[in-house]
Structure formats: C-alpha cells, structure tokens
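Chain A, query sequence.
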Amino acid sequence: MSGQSSHLMRVRALYKGILKLHRGLPLQMKALGDNYIREEFRAHKQAEPAEVAVFMQEWTKYYVTLAKQLSQRKQRQEVGQNLSPEILDNFSEEQLGQLHELFKETTLSEARATEENKPKS
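Chain A, predicted structure.
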C-alpha cells in the first residue's frame, strides 16, 4: 500500500508542477495545455504499469524542458521542441491526429495573438 501511495504522490506532484509551469505560458497556450494535461492524466488513471512508467517518464521530460525554456528570459519566448522522426514513427494514428489538432490550435492562437497586438491604423 505504501508503494502505491508514494506513486500517487509522485503523479500528483508532477501534475501540479506542470500546471504551475503553465502559468508562465501565454494565456491561450496555458488554457490549451491545462485542458490537454487534465485529459491525459485522467485517461491514464487505469493504465498498465509499463504504460504508466513511460507516461511518467515522458511527462517528466516535458516538465524539465518547459521549466528550462520558461526560465530563459528572452524578449520573444520560444516554447516547445520539434519531435524526431523516430518518435513520430511510434505514435498511433490517434496520437498523430491529436498532435495535428494541437498544431492547428496553437498556430491559430499565435495568429490571433499577433493580430491582437498589431497597432491599429
């Protein structure tokens, strides 16, 4: 029972840590990221132990990468990273579809933000 409770504490800490990092994102990216992480963590509540291990490893990498990117104070902050072809080859059709939807939504959000920040003539 102790092992399960410590695992649950690690999952919750990672989940809360990611949500906290999302506060540093632009508002539209934060909303999109918060919704996505909620869905992903909920969907993996009953996953097999091997899948949970990979899930936790990948979300921990995301946490570390995002923390590094947000800690770099730049004029124009860049977040995210390109996925290698090897990683993309391991995605299911559903995951590729989700990735494409995420790409469309973020590029639309970026375009809207750029449009909103343009000086009005």
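Helices lie at 2-22, 27-43, 49-71, 85-89, 93-117. The chain is about 75% helix and 0% strand.
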